[in-house]
Amino acid sequence: MSGKKTRVHFLSLIATLVFLVFGQIAQAGELRIWIKEKARVTDDTVTLGDIASFTPEQDERVPALRERRVAAAPAPGRDLVMNSRFLIYRLSSLLGGDPQVRVKVPESLVVQRPGQVISAKKMTDIFRQYIFSHSPRDRKKMEIERMHVPGSLTLPCGRLSWEIQDRGEEDFAGDISRVISFSVDGRIYRKVPVSCRILVSRKVIKTVRKIARGQVIGPQDLVEVTEQSIRSDRNDVIHLNQITGRRAARSLQAGQTVTRGMVEIPPTVRKGDRVIIKAESSSVVVSALGKVMEDGRSGEQVRVINVSSGKQIFATVLGPGQVRVSF
Fold this sequence. Notes:
Blueprint: H1 2-17, E1 31-35, E2 38-40, E3 45-47, H2 48-51, E4 52-55, H3 62-66, E5 69-72, E6 79-83, H4 84-95, E7 101-104, E8 108-112, E9 115-118, H5 120-134, E10 142-148, E11 153-156, E12 160-164, E13 174-184, E14 187-207, E15 222-229, E16 247-248, E17 257-258, E18 263-264, E19 274-280, E20 285-292, E21 301-306, E22 312-319, E23 322-326
Parallel strand pairs: 1-7, 2-8, 19-23
Antiparallel strand pairs: 1-4, 3-5, 6-8, 9-11, 10-14, 12-13, 13-14, 14-15, 14-17, 16-18, 19-20, 20-21, 21-22, 22-23
């Protein structure tokens, strides 16, 4: 039955395309074109050369005919079915009514386009490798969770490559997102968004009791623990000695993580303290009793009143109970 249908289509196309007068053959000779029932393509276009065979192959018309576009190719990994009616219609326009061309058309033609599948796991591995190779911290201190990648995708066959555009310095902690650009033979075919959440292992200092604002913090008030967090440790205190001996810049609750901004160095001199004012030159050193009018740390300038003269001056804090002025 299939053979009869193929023959009917063949005769129908002959009636449509070929206008041969019996016994008359043009100088170019007869060219036979046989359309396949199955064909494979690798490009974005289906050409006549992809789906047909020619007899004789040495015919001077064959090279040009091979390059003529029949239809757009299916997506990679998909099939395209062309029925005989469509084929006859397309070939009629492509062959231009050449009376020396005979064509045989099947009932249907299946065009296959192979592809390479990029699985979700492959995309996950690519993203993970990018994170570990670009993160400033040891991968053992990182845990990736909530990885979001699309389902598998199919690309044309060929040399596969990919690129993830870097965004410069980044802590690689918390929620991050990127775009993977997939290329085949140097041509970008797909851009795929990916994202994840990264937990980092960090050492932090926590309070063991409530600490009032302004209270000096001692080693007994703190404990060092390791925790997983979406925050980096850039602004967090790492060592106990960075906190011990400083005072709380605000009230701290028990079990609270202490960061640098929560503590401050206590003042070396406080408002109302009595200090020795040293006035020095290259040859003379003079001392006087003074009263500090504001808190100050070593190296800072504070307002001081000379107790003897009652004159207010600015002096640099040298240490506990000592300030200096220049003259």
